[in-house]
Amino acid sequence: MKKYILILVLLLISGLQLRAQKLEVTVQANTGLFHFAGKSSSATTQVLQGSITGDPMNRANNPYGSKNGFSYGGSVQVQTVSKGGFIVGLQGGYELLRSKAEVNKYTPIILNPTEYDIVANDASFAVTGHVALQSQSINLNPYIGYRFALNKVNLDILPGMDIGLILDTRDKGEVKDKEGKIYKVDYKRSKAPTDVRLRLGAAASYGRYGLNASFAHGLANYMKDMVGDASFNAHSEYFRLGLSYRLL
Questions:
Q1: Which residues, including other chains, have CB under 8 Å from residue 10's CB and lie 6 or more apart?
Q2: How far apart are CA 95 and CA 11, in angstroms?
Q3: How far is CA 236 from the centre of its chain?
Q4: 31-41, pLDDT tens digit by residue?
Q5: Of all helices (H) and strands (E), which one includes residue 145?
Q6: Residues paired with residue 156 on neighbouring β-strands, in sequence order
Q7: Exposed / middle / buried, residue 120 (Cβ in 10 Å: 0-12, 13-18, 19+)
Q8: What SS3 state is found at 15?
């Protein structure tokens, strides 16, 4: 997969050089709503105590929340626009993505008081709060498109794809029991898969300033390595809205 992604990016860069009629370089700041969809995503989960040592390692039982979490990022975009209005471009930047799930239960580890062995008793109790699956990533967005000139406003329609290279993934949040005791969650997860998404975007610009929006639908199954039911599936979905400033 990564080999084909590299080939695609190289071809697009070549296209920028070969088709260049007008070169545009833009910086962007984006916010958005990110969540997981698919059979195994969930709006609610429980928090599990993961260790009997000093660090409890609290973590979400199912971190792939189907509720939207506030996310943000910044990027640099380079594109060429032909005289006929056709666009070839590449955007790259940093993003912090969060999905969210409500937490209704906390499950501690219970020890046998004489043998210090973990026992299987269900000692779960009710809590309130939420946990977010938070990912830091480098995102590449190769795309093509077309520009419509509407009086003094340019409207670009930009189908393409996201290639999310995940740097770090954590469960983040806190929950509270009925006595008011707080259980914090900050659990580092193993490396997530490269998140490839189909993306459709639009950008409206007036002079050097622009407004952009896009929706991306993930193709990567975050639960493909889960042991058990082969139908486990959770993929990402992300709606972005941002502002841009054209440098060139």
A1: none
A2: 24
A3: 6
A4: 999 999 999 99
A5: strand 128-150
A6: 147, 203
A7: exposed
A8: helix
